[in-house]
Amino acid sequence: MSAFREQRLPPWRRAVLKVGSSLLAADAHGLSPRHALGLAQFVSASRTQGREVVIVSSGAVAAGRTLVPRAPEAGAPMAARQALAALGQARLMALWQRFFEVPVAQVLLTHDDLRNRRRYLNARATLLELLRLGALPVVNENDTVSVDELKLGDNDNLAAIVAALVNADVLFIASDVDGLYSADPRLDPVAQPVQATLGVSPELMGFAGGAGTRSGTGGMRTKLEAAARASAAGVDTVIFNGTRQDVHRLLAEDRLLGTRIQAERSRPAARKHWLRNAPVGGALAVDAGAVEALRTRGASLLAGGVREVVGEFARGDVVEVRDAGGGAVARGLVQYAAADVRRIAGRHSRDIDLLLGYNYGESVVHRDDLVLL
User: Fold this and answer.
1) How many CB atoms lie within 10 A of CB 322?
2) Which positions bind ATP (predicted)?
3) Is CATH 3.40.1160.10 the right assignment for the domain spanning 7-270?
4) Is there a binding annotation on residue 126?
């Protein structure tokens, strides 16, 4: 019996579901479908409703540990753990694929992929294209080539980064406890459940403990760190017990037994705030038709509307969009470097491949990455 009361989930169209090692590798004895099946049924039900889901899944190291004799235990040298991750990735992907008729796509990310703006945009474009194709992306850190440490911090925070990356509406974090409590309920019998909260306060962070299980690498503290990161991007976070079939069924009906951490501002507002305040790398002067399309139709900025490129900037930089008189119209993330925009300015989008030999899409600044001023 859960101490949490049932509540409605926030409306959502796209979500990230984070599943930790503790749910996939009970007692470090390899991968088990026991809890993954119910989570997969929730994902399938959501997709049937026309929604999109990206899974961020741990478990590769735990899977690899069972494949070789005398496998190194937790705390082993990094090269040994990376070898286990390489061995276990195939098993992890096979586990998820068995539950779905649609293709499951493996996406491995590193810290550099998310720190470098060009690679960040490439990763986002890949994930969004996979969703457009109807595939199910399963994301994990590329443990095999990570150089700083095995994890990007942990997969809770990776899931929050991915939620911002794909403009998700909600981040689902499957835990092995029912939700957030005022203290660890396994140690404190009078710990009180936290039903819902706005953002992540220092007091809320004080409720969290450390690592929870042998297989996992993070406890409730990392989940709250992830929730804070998601909240800053305008994404709600839901923490629930991923071991309970009844909780899985309720989620498919937009009902929650667990903790909801509501973002302190909406997703569009968070993104607009960031774009308005980010450093500007250069500017694009556009014609009157482009200005009207941006202001009245919510369109993307296409190459045909660009008349002049001001300054030097790289793909992924924030640029200012100006009208013929030099007035600021908008700001946005540019999909092409300044030298490339100069070559395609005034040309039709279908000519980009011919002019550059490659393309990152038909828009110079996509409407999802643009804010009007």
Assistant:
1) 20
2) 18, 175-176, 217-223
3) yes
4) no
